[in-house]
Design brief:
alpha+beta, four-stranded antiparallel β-sheet, binds coenzyme A
């Protein structure tokens, strides 16, 4: 499906300035998606959800050569969405801050974007205590200036890892050190190739991919497809 010579992941991004273009296409969502979308109280959350599903349906319909409203999205027992009757086609959605991203691949994939929030709203030390390896805690505390960026980079890598596994919850996350990826971007950890990058000053993106091969990501702006 995806041209493996050139790349193994197609990544579609949509900035908040274009979410309204996606919301206009909400008629292609399923009744249950529309119901879920309308339950969100915060307008941005509604738009992020809608945009993720519009990207998924639009891109999947092109790969699978079918109408976007005919794509059937099912969920595994931990809530990870997948496309019915499509064994060789995987995707994963993430949204945070100003971005919605969806990664597509021939192999299981996890994608996570995090807004680097430097405010005091989230107690990063408390989160690190339960989910981070002692080496990771030392790494984030080694730089006061970089502390938040380091924290969110590790967090997004761990979320992408868990999302690729499709488990929703990973036992002993604090025993898993993701630091080898920080040192050498594009590293294999527990069967997953992991990589990260900052997509702008405030957002970090991580991808985990169930294949031992370097990630070759082809990035697209979703609005170019509309
Ligand atoms: C389910 C979970 C992976 C979602 O991640 P998130 O950062 O809150 O939100 P994101 O925007 O990145 O991802 C949400 C999307 O992931 C997908 N998703 C939901 N459950 C999933 C799962 N179990 N596995 C993979 N993807 C999942 C959905 O498409 C969802 O978007 P949608 O409902 O709009 O379609 C996360 O809430 C979770 O349970 N993490 C557990 C791991 C952990 O403890 N991490 C702590 C940090 S180290």
């Amino acid at each position: 499906m995806i041209n493996k010579q050139a790349k193994n992941i197609d990544l579609y991004k949509c900035h908040r300035s274009k979410w309204d273009n996606c919301v206009q296409k909400q008629h292609i969502l399923s009744p249950s998606e529309l119901e879920k979308m309308n339950k969100y109280k915060i307008e941005d959350d509604k738009k992020r959800f809608c945009t993720g599903r519009i990207i998924t349906r639009t891109v999947a319909s092109r790969y699978l050569k079918t109408d976007s409203n005919k794509i059937e999205i099912l969920f595994n027992e931990h809530g990870k969405p997948y496309i019915k009757n499509s064994k060789a086609f995987f995707f994963n959605i993430s949204h945070s801050g100003d971005w919605v991203v969806v990664g597509f691949s021939d192999y299981e994939i996890g994608v996570d974007i995090q807004m680097i929030d430097t405010g005091k709203k989230l107690n990063i030390d408390n989160i690190a205590k339960y989910a981070f390896h002692p080496d990771e805690i030392k790494y984030i505390n080694d730089s006061e200036e970089e502390k938040h960026t380091r924290f969110y980079t590790i967090w997004s890598l761990k979320e992408a890892f868990v999302k690729a596994k499709g488990v929703g919850f990973y036992n002993n996350l604090e025993k898993l050190s993701i630091l080898p990826v920080i040192k050498d971007n594009n590293t294999l950890i527990d069967g997953l190739s992991l990589s990260y990058k900052k997509i702008d000053e405030q957002h970090v993106l991580a991808i985990a991919f169930a294949k031992n091969m370097p990630l070759k990501v082809s990035e697209h702006e979703f609005q170019d497809l509309l």
